[in-house]
Request: fold
Amino acid sequence: TKDIDPGFHQVMRNLEEGIVGGVLFLGRNIADKADIEEMVRKIKECKCKASPFIAIDEEGGNVERLGEKQGFRHTPSAADIGHDDAETARFEFNRLAQKLSEIGFNINLAPVVDLNRNPTNPIIGSLNRSFSSNPLMASQYASIFIEEHHKQGLATALKHFPGHGSSSTDSHEGIADVETSWSSIELMPYRTLLDRGIVDAIMVGHLANSSQWGGVATQYGSRSIDQMLRRQLKFDGVVLSDDLSMRAV
Reply:
């Protein structure tokens, strides 16, 4: 576009100077198809020492940055896909991954593997972001999501470790305390997908559980990453924090 936002120029400078190693697009960064394609093309052409991560969190349903409003095809929510058969899920996730790959993204910060343990949960259950309350079903559909992204050369990130599905609060608004609702069954999708050897990265949520993992999962003093994720689940890959502009931080 003729008028690229000065903030975008700053991002390009930060990438080329090695201050940051990637960019995440949110809904507010995307006006239309032409805009996003041009911005991604410019990032891919940056004079960077290493190819930057070009990320989006495109789950489908309520968390869809590239939907019909922006000139793209809609992807159903995880809850809707979880009610369909595996073949339909593969078809939908293949189209989703192709859409992202054609634009030039190389990582999608999804799938959600939170279990739908509280259907009135304001940020997971109520928004239809969980595949299922059943860990085997959640693992099956997350596997299909990951496999279809890998076929298109895209990395993925499981979220929100150690489990946001039972919360009754939204971690965008404040720390979500799951001490009385969280259960170790919520680790099952992580264990299953790690056993399959297909996990690229894991995103940790701003979730508190003092008795079981000590404090807030993303903050100092918690055992969730060092003990649960690294030692117990033996994950030695990339760990991401959920958004640092959320009120929980």
